[in-house]
Write a structure and sequence with these properties.
This protein has 19 helices and 52 strands. The protein is an alpha+beta fold. The radius of gyration is 30 Å and the shape is globular. 51% of the residues are buried. Mean pLDDT is 93; it is low at 4-21 and 1015-1026. Bound molecules: zinc ion. Zinc ion is lined by residues 1, 51, 53, 173, 415.
Length: 1026
Amino acid sequence: MAIDHPRHRTRLSALLLVALWALAESKYIAYNTTQRIVADKLNVHIVAHTHDDVGWLKTVDQYYVGSNNSIQGACVQNVLDSIIPSLLADKNRRFIYVEQAFFQRWWRQQSDEIKETVKELLSSGQLEFINGGMCMHDEAAVHYIDMIDQTTLGHRFINQEFGIIPRIGWQIDPFGHSAVQAYLLSAEVGFDALYFFRIDYQDRAKRKDLKSLEVIWRASKSLGLSADIFTGIFPKNYEPPPGGFYFEVNDDSPVIQDDPLLFDYNVQERVDDFVAAALSQANITRTNHIMFTMGTDFKYQYANSWFRQLDKFIHYVNKDGRVNALYSTPSIYTDAKYALEESWPLKTDDFFPYADNPNAYWTGYFTSRPAIKGYVRMMSGYYLAARQLEFFTERNSSGYTTDSLADALAIAQHHDAVTGTEKQHVANDYAKRLSIGYSEAEKLVGASLACLTEPTSSPGCYKMTTKFEQCPLLNISYCPPSEVDLSNGKKLIVLVYNSLGWKRNDIIRIPVISESIVHDSEGNEIESQLLPLADATVKLRSYHVKAYLGISPSITPKFWLIFPVSVPPLGFNTYFVSSTKGKGSVASVSTFYSSEESDNSNIKVGKGKLKLLYNVKDGTLTHYLNSRSLVKASMEQTYSYYAGDSGSGSDPQASGAYIFRPNGTFPIKPEKKAPTTIVRGSILDEVHQQINPWIYQVSRVYKGKEHAEVEFTVGPIPVDDEIGKEIVTKITTGMVTNKTFYTDSNGRDFIKRVRDYRSDWELQVNQPVAGNYYPINLGIYMQDDSTEFSVLVDRSVGGSSILDGQIELMLHRRLLYDDGRGVGEALNETVCVDGECAGLTVQGKFYVKIDPLGEGSRWRRTFGQEIYSPLLVAFSIEDGGDWTGSHTANFSAMDPSYSLPDNVALITLQALEDGNVLLRLAHLYEVGEHKDLSAMAYVELKKMFPARKISNIIEMNLSANQEKAAMEKKRLKWNTEGSSGVETIARGGPVDPSKLVVELAPMEIRTFLITFDYISFAKIGDHWNV
Ligand SMILES: [Zn+2]
């Protein structure tokens, strides 16, 4: 999206050419566009570009075909169609194209002849792919694994189809910029530079003064200068410079009129405008190279109307001679900067939060549309697991693939998708695509699991007898496959798959209709707990099943059946649920009502090492105690809301989809008569609290876990008082935290934040809350001199520490005004049943833990992976017979004696179409983050793939479109002001093909293309060999 650009003066030509008219002759002018860089002049690099949002006001397909034009006259097909003849008309013209989601739609519709032409234009460099992911992903509300996946998808397509490797990061529109984008998705991808424009307006002003809009960004503490990236921040926006240079057919900038026989001849005037714009930009830029970004959103739909003018500008400006204008691209511009061997200012950390005005912090979108954000995250973890299963059972063997989920997830990372800044109908489109992609992946997963469990007597996946079903709506307790009558002696088969590279002990919960018990695959009854479904849960379930599936479920489950599972790495285990009228152990339920009485005693919750204390008088949380670590802390948790500013005051800025502008904060007090219900069982205790009529909360303390889990259900947020509301929860401790807290960058590195402070400039504080909000994808934590307090999240949210010792998360927002950044709608999500609509209800979880200082990172990293990759649970029914006797009940793809080191995660295992396998391993710790785990890690591939022989292994760059060694060879080495450039950086060494051990240094992600000698179904004895 772009902000409306200022209207340009329509200038009346003052030139009086009447006298000349009689003498002049009108004829063909051959515009000279051949100009290249001139060393001793100011070089103006004209970069012709279009910014094509992969969905925003219209859906991705509507933008592509050019439908729904009453919303926005935009047709990407026109852009790509018209670019080709325009480039052919003059070989000096150049154009860059970015969004592969659009390009791929167009490409598959082209004739062989056009395809051949495009290939020639690409190889001559007239057409250049920039960025090259499926979309221009957001940088705040996205997880690094999704960023990698969507970039890989685009980059590999470009490489396979054209043999081309994009050189430049072009994140021109995202609303703030992350460290992970800089060091990981730029430097580690092999980009030579990264360009964008949205940084804080105060930061920009200072950088213009100091000529420091172009920097070397060293965003990783661990990888240091080995992951530096040259970064250019545009002075104003990604549009043409001020002075009237917009040339779409209906734009109103003055065109160059150079025919003396016609009125309004204006060549000199326009040349003066161009030179003035160039000198003004040169004033704030180092070196004699500046870039004019000639284009903006959905421009070049009739490309010739731009190129005609750009030809003339180049011709006449160069004739004028004051500056040198040339057709260029960001690659040519970058090479020109590099060739000068300048030293550039150093930038560390990131560019969050982003404000474009004193009351306009773009920190609302960190939370906007929390349901979509949750859905994207859930699909992301599922996609990772599904690709593993696709690999185990051979790609395409079931007729299903993960490709459609991959595409849907890729475009959902767009900066107007997961951000929540699109129109409602577009948000619905993203959700629909995810749902379609999920359905296919679900079939693939079901078939793969059936295949892997098949009777050993009939190897192969061709006669699968078992049908595995899954429950994507388990979060609202809807799971038809588990809500079955088992009184006839049938058993419910529960298969639990673990996509992590470590063995995992966890607790799962499924809804059942009667008292049940659980056996493991060896036939032993295991501990289980039955927990009555709360009324609030049942209500939520029936309402949303009606809303989303259009049906009213005929049965209502009575209990959650809860039991512990133990699952090997990259493998599954199987459990069996059977009915036992009256034999199951039902959790005891006790309810107390807050009273006016002055009873200040506490109730203790939790049977393991962690205990939470609640005040009997009002049901509030008071203390957090851990008997193992001896942490003992006061802890309070409250809800409150910010009233969204309506923009009716002197500054018309409203709080909206992008912007968070609070107008007062209001505590939400638990209602006097609201009961606090405590449910106690052998595996976990739960505290249920109806905070107010539209906030319900369940806090869980598991016997075997040392963190608390909080499940919130917020909505419908009432707006009858015509006040939009942004709901937050605050967790308050007595810690002395000196304004300091830490938030993650795209779920990866943690960055230090200091309230009301920026390291790059003297911050003028206008918005003491909104201006201290940061995006959170993994978690937020703070420390004092003895403990650290961490909160982890299940989706991206905004959060902060507005008071010392306190962490707050924004959970949901419902607003009534548009915030003026183009979307043109208030962020007011609803859900409808039978034509009656109510505000959207959002359910999610966060996790809370206090550790002794120095111990918190292990939980954040390990449990963070568990949140990202929840256990995948699939169901079937044992139809008589002896399942375990005839099926594979336990499986691990890895050697039984092996698991990945504690500090390494498997983030990609994917069978590619060409038969090769893509493998990515990630070190989970930063340098100095943990005393033992921030060390070099070693992964033994032979033990990861014990039954397959690796015949070839090639290390690739992050997006797997070139060999790592080739990328490193090409890497530009920039000079940095005040940096010696002799830092020692740890990196894992090359992989010896005979030993096959991968070394990973802190925060390293290493990507490999592996060829196995065979990928086939071979069953030896009882074990699958994959
Ligand atoms: Zn955009």
